[in-house]
Protein 1
Amino acid sequence: MDRIQLLSETVASQIAAGEVVNRPASVVKELVENSIDAGATSVQIVVTDAGRTLIQVTDNGQGMSEADARLAFQRHATSKIRETDDLYNLTTFGFRGEALPSIAAVSELSLNTRTADSETGVQVSMSGGQDMQVEPCVCDSGTTFRVRNLFFNVPARRKFLKGNQTEFGHIMTEVERVALAHPEVSIELFHQGQQLLSLPSQSLRNRIVSLCGKKTSQSLLPVEVETSVVRINGFVSNLEGSRQRGSQQFFFVNGRFMRHPYFHKAVLQAFEGLIRESDQPSYFLFFDIAPDQIDVNVHPTKTEVKFQDEPVIWKILLAAVRETVGKFEEMPTIDFNVADMPEIPAFETGSNSGNMPKVEYDPNYNPFKTSGSNGNSQYSSYGQPAKRNTDDWTKLYGDVQTRDVREPEIEYGNDSAAAPAPLGQLAERYILMPTTNGLKLVDQHRAHIRVLFDRFISQAVSQSAPSQGLLFPEMFQLSPSAYQTFTSLKQHFEELGFDLSDMGHGAVAVQGVPAGFEGHDYENAIKGMIEECAEDASANRESVLRTMALSMARSSAIPSGRHLSSDEMKQLAAELDACDIPTKTPDGQTISVVLTLEELSKRFG
Ligand code: ADP
Ligand code: MG
């Protein structure tokens, strides 16, 4: 019996649709890109249930005639290229004519559109790409797409969608990218009836302020280079800004976002030796290049772009960023004229713009008091076993509020006194410990990460993380996508001992921090935690807590390059010893190395 059959039109188009539309965010991306291709100066995006129920995109672009509106839903129907050669001269986002038929195949879609020179508009509607209805309608010039009940006819795909937080986070990411690529286009975004973004047509630097906050943009330095091959302009963070967490990294080529790991390395290399290896500069870099020098003809959902002559552009990029960093290193950061801009401009609207948080604080708490139970509690409540004198922990943190106070006498409990005393510190990085069969070198930073991580985790898991109220709550702004992640992590922040208030519209107020965490850079620490969970904020509790605790431990652990007194070394060694896995950090880095006597004697020959 013959077994091969041609797939029905419906099945074939659903399969093809899967290539372009794999989640609500891809619909938003395709529709907004079409609007911009159509010359829109204003785009409004309305989303319900993270795009499951409704995605509506309205623009004031050139609109479509009735014939075009019908044709637009046929596969390979496009106004943007006609011949293969045009492929090498693309100035638009779209070109394959695949998006609309793909979206139509997996949703209930309607389109209202009118060109400026026509009196009446046209409405096209269909369900699952079938039964196209076309009627005249009254509408503004421009185009509105309404995509309802995405994947209603592909239950398997619908089931695979993640939670609303995650899906909406993806939508935010796409909107952020287009918004940065096209600051001249005004963009509004609504979710569940709430306005989340209201971006006027503005300069690039003001768009960055709107999306990433004043703080990020204040640390930015301008990059500008023009050669016969390529023009590169935009901004990179200064050294100070590159040490902050929550880095924002964007490349755009000819007005579209791209990923380019190779060029990313050029930027990193420009910073080499100036920042720590773990630091990440922020950058917003725009490449303008003749369209025939790049190939965007890759998979529609891919953001990689191939350039004709990558090594040459790599060098130009490296040199341009180096020059900027060198030139501005000593100088004050550029003045963005943002003094009169509100800190949270992108979120200014909305009815429930937050009130300042209630300040709750412990009236007995005195950060300058070291003796008595209050002073001690700073570290003992950090989970230190009570039998140890814990005041000396304060010394391990040069920057906590207690740094100015007189250092208390150090008395070790019996157990730590029994531990072998460190021999000294090497290169302000390794603690040298004698062992029965040789010499152990302990990486101080990694050792402290292990100690802190274990403590944070055990407190969170046993729901006993002590929190310290802040006298002066600190408020900061999250980027829209970070804010999405934050809302799903909020409970875990509490479990770890943070008291954070969601002020709405991307603003967060820190009202309390885990006891012992006082004095750290909260904004950076919290942004770092969010960033590291961004990929999988809805994973199981344990794994999210681990990621967060590790990030916290990293940002608060004793750094390399800090001098430690012998007591501090002794304390840290004892703490490390008490850990279940004292040899590896939670992410598998080696904490200590042993030089055995045997090896030594071999060396001596
Ligand atoms: P592509 O963008 O690759 O050309 P699409 O399927 O996304 O393919 O769109 C098909 C065609 O529909 C476009 O080439 C364009 O002519 C038209 N079109 C789509 N969206 C709009 C819009 N918002 N305004 C005007 N025309 C549009
Ligand atoms: Mg398109």
Protein 2
Amino acid sequence: MTDEVIFCETPDDVADAAAELIFEKEKEAVAERGVFRIALAGGSTPKLLYERLAAEEWREEMSWESWEVYWSDERAVPLDHPESNYHLAHSHLLKHVPVRNIFRMFSDVSPRLSGGNMGGLEQAARDYQQLMIKQFADPLPVFDVILLGMGTDGHTASLFPNSPALQSDQLVAAVETNQKIQHRLTLTYRVLNAARTVIFLIAGEEKAELVRDVLLNGDPSLPATHVKPEGGECYWILDDAAAHLLE
Ligand code: 6PG
């Protein structure tokens, strides 16, 4: 596993660097396997990337017909909810490009409304796991690229500190959260660490201490620390504000 940090000045430069890297990995994947499988992330930093990919320069470059689009995590909200990661990617990328193979997480069940019963979300986790195994024709799906962000509590995908999902032996976990944030579905470390390439997109001063604690101190309490694709590459694309404690 190789960790590589790419230093950028601004969040827009992070998006540009990520688009370049995705193009490189897409070409490799299509040449070798005829398909490019990517898991998208939620959050404000990936949104800049999606807008970049939908703009003319990259829209004309990518082999969209070879793309299979999945998600690294999703909230238990309706598809058109502003907090939906599907809604984010569809609004800023997928409705603008000719991707045909889109496999969303069916997390739009409502544990909160059904008295907190997580059964529907747990079934959605099992369903997505089976979908991936079928599409990849492999009991352990190996993504070409998995996009990740990192929250201000150190979570990545929807793997939160101290969550039972951190120890899950499944491919997809249902994540019961507190009242302030939506329940989620998330890919587990088994899938993240099987990927050929993981790309962290991180920007902003509020992430600087976390970036230092993960990359310099290897803080085991932070979920992002344990993303180490065994046979793959892990890129950390950082803006100056997020990277300034690394010097
Ligand atoms: C989610 C996201 C999450 C996100 C981080 C960073 O659904 O919560 O996938 O993991 O990537 O919270 O978000 P920002 O890029 O907005 O800081």
